[in-house]
Amino acid sequence: MKIKLSFLAIITSIVIFAQTAPSYYNGIDFTKTGNALKTQLTTLITNTHTVKISYSQLRDELKISDKDPAVPNNILLVYGSQTSGIHQRSRAANPESGWNREHVFAQSLGTPALGQSGAGSDGHHLRPSDIQLNSNRGNLFFADGSGATAYATNGGWFPGDEWKGDIARIIMYTYVRYPTQCLPKNVTKGPFTYSADMADILLKWNAEDPVSAFEIQRNNHFFGVQKNRNPFIDNPYLATVIWGGPKAQNTWPNTILATGEVTNKIISVYPNPVRNNELFINGISNDAEVKIYNLTGQLVQTISNVKNNQKIILKNLPKGVYILKAGELNTKLIID
């Protein structure tokens, strides 16, 4: 999220963006990649989420967490980009009639639906929004676009250039914190070419829109309240290490992290494109479980006990692009 910052906010962001991972992450093995790292982070942010706040309490918390650094008594409204109207960016926190609590991961799209507890009242998830603009978004999937103003596009919703990175990191957090309920494929337009479980646009937005002092402000506030953090605000590069895609900023240059480039360099499929439903996989451990997903994230085939360079037979899958996963590794698969 790119915003104009006061001198104090800039200094704050520099101080908070330490060169090494903070002590909160001491138990994490950052040499891991893919699902191994994601699972560790799920355990951490779940176990440390020891204080659950209510949906009603969240309204008061947002007046603090989302305070406009430049305008006292104002809050910043997600998707906002203008000085007035439904797209207003900064608005008085009181009275409360002009804004409400936006579930960035739409309530109805959870599995099951989120409601107003758990993921539905998590401070790292909900943001203040203009009531009408919130209604305009509804439960539209997130889709790529351009420009400052949020708008509906191709049956989806583009949050605006200022907010797209924030949105990506919120969806990443909700997925890691609530891995069976908040699936990115349920709230984003595909494709899923880098990873079968994280949409390309979220990885793109995470890289294109660096973390701001405002996001850090929110993350620190809800760490104080809930006792857990959003790892992707602390270091957006963790998303690259877990799911691949374009390189995001690495705010911990002095912490040893995996490169985030292991995905397509270690595992390979041949022939690719696949013909006659026959293929070989190189770079996997023997007796691996291989899963094939289409670009909407749907699992279309599982093959157990696959050995390295062993011929395997696919189902009669339609022509197109798929993601083949073996353990923590994945690669693009084309069926011709």
Automatic annotation (TrEMBL):
Keyword Hydrolase (UniProt): yes
Residues spanning the signal sequence: 1-20
Domain Secretion system C-terminal sorting: 269-334
Tree of life domain: Bacteria
GO MF annotation: an example: hydrolase activity
Keyword field: Hydrolase, Nuclease, Signal
Cross-referenced SUPFAM superfamilies: His-Me finger endonucleases
InterPro entries assigned: Endonuclease-I, His-Me_finger_sf, Secre_tail
NCBIfam families: Por_Secre_tail
Name assigned to this protein: Putative secreted protein (Por secretion system target)
